[in-house]
Amino acid sequence: MNHKLIADVSRSLLLARWKQTLVAAIGVTFSITMFISLLSFMSGLNDLLDGLIINRTPHIRMYNEIKPSAQQPVSLSEKYKDHYNFISTVKPKKERLEIYNNAVIMNYLQKDDRILGIAPKITTQVFYNVGAVDLAGAINGIDVEAENKLFLFQDYVSAGNYVDLKNTPNSIILGKGLSEKMLADIGDVIQVTTSRGERMSLKVVGFFQSGLQDIDNTQSYASITTTQKLLAESGSYITDIQVKLKDINLAPAMALEFQNLFDLEAVDIQTANAQFETGSSVRTIISYSVGITLLIVAGFGIYNILNMMIYEKMDSIAILKATGFSGKDVNRIFITIALSIGIFGGILGLIFGFGLSALIDQIPFNTPSLPTIKTYPVNYNPAFYIIGAVFSIVTTYLAGYFPSRKASKIDPVIIIRGK
Amino acid sequence: MDQKILEAKNVTKYFHDPITFQVLKEISFSVNRGEFVSVIGKSGCGKSTLLYILSTMDTDYEGEILIDGESMRDKKEAELAMVRNEKIGFVFQFHYLLNEFSVLKNVMLPGLKLGKYSAAEVEHKAYEKLKILGIESEALKKPNQVSGGQKQRVAIARALINDPLIIMGDEPTGNLDKKNSEIVFGIFQELAEVYNQSLLIVTHDNEFAARTHRIIEMEDGRII
User: Fold this and answer.
1) Contacts of A326 in chain B (CB under 8 A)
2) Is A154 in a helix, a strand, or coil?
3) Is B113 within 8 Å of A323 when comparing Cβ atoms?
4) CA gap A85, A71 in Å, rounded
5) In the predicted model, is pLDDT for residue B209 greater than 60?
6) Looking at the partner chain, which of B85, B86, B98 has a beta carbon nearest the beta carbon of A316?
7) How far apart are CA A45 and CA B114, in angstroms?
8) Which of A137, A305, A345, B91 is the most exposed place for a label (fewest CB within 10 A)?
9) Is the distance from CB of B216 to CB of B39 less than 8 angstroms?
């Protein structure tokens, strides 16, 4: 009964100043709309940029690095233990890039349930022979299926079918820039020379475009077996093990663990690409702060309008109190007014925000470096809508709280005697 | 009919701004059921101040107020609001109607707040009260569409809606012309005689006061 009456009185006060109310609601709508579309767009863009790196970078990469030994024989010797030993011009010793015992390591990793999957890889330097010219570059020998499953290989294959790499013997997928230099088309046969001077003919089955010019101009992909053949190595030869984790945040700790366990170099994605994470979090912070600032400004609008309404309705408040409405009732009337503005404006804002995001999603965005992207990226994360809804209610409640408290404290005697 | 419905015991009040000044000096009196009492006095003698203390809206006083035998001393703000809602009807010099609502709704508001009857019953009662005051034909108009005299009658209907123990008026005819004052006074008299309604009216109109059952005259914060 009482709720209905309070709602009724609130509604009448609202409608009596419907133009002001509308302006306040539009303020909330506008800010929620901008909040939603800004965050959706920003986070879509973040996902895209992060995806460029994170999707095709292993969370942990293990390899053998050629470097000088940390401990020289003389410092291990018992005899010279009490001496200071100075050794100059230390050089790395000849060491193979191959990972020893890689079958055992991979078996072990496959049983670890923190790990989503692993993909072996061979990287090797080659020369692409174009007539009389040799172009320096690299070939990545990959396990085609594992690579596609873990690192979305097919997204970057802009022409040809990635599976052909596995099905066609002695095949290669060239970087887009590289293929233009070599004037190679799908179906053509090209020549490559390894660093040891061995020569091999490979059939082009496709092109890939990673979005990173340096890579597209120099690198190409072949299957692991083709690469082993090219290098004249056995079927167990691999140089890298790429690991993708279920939780990317575990990468630094696990990299350290594997480094000690297998006596290999292990680099985690956070260390290898620190700048990307920083970039994303800064962009997210900026978009949240702009969105929240908009909402707070809208909150001040509501605060002003309620304050004015209370000054205008001083008489009405006084008589309501004289005829038996308590301070609490008056408080609830004005809180109801504020919340109705917030809820009405907020719901409209969510709808418009979705509409604006959908519109941004339709705007063409063609860039040669991102072959799979046709329009601006938008992330329709429900969390943004929930944050927007909660925030619109919280700000309008706070904006209504102080004016309402003032209204509830109005002393009817002062108003009525003042006339 | 000697039941006391309103009693003031040694009510004293000070104003502190700009200087401490005693407005009411140990005022004691009572109003019985069905009595039509007027309070008169020169302006500044404290008669309105007394009325607001009696009405429970002003709580800054010394002494004791009993309404229907109950002390108002230690009640909380919300409880006092309930007392005002249920037991006291107000008529002020100015009508204080809410322009957002129709005349009928204005009369109904305190009844809806009381919540003792359903909305339909309150509406029926509001029509009855408007009929007593002869303005039922204006029920659906907005307050700013009716005349000044009619507005004051709507305010009286609003005061009556919860069948209060007592109606308090602060110069209810102060803003009205002779003819409308006469009508309003007639209504008060009818309420007292026919409906046995208790009334406590503050006025500076001696002619008006002379026609009530009892006159309380005040001077310098005392009853004389």
Assistant:
1) 77-78, 81-82
2) helix
3) yes
4) 11
5) yes
6) B98
7) 58
8) A137
9) yes
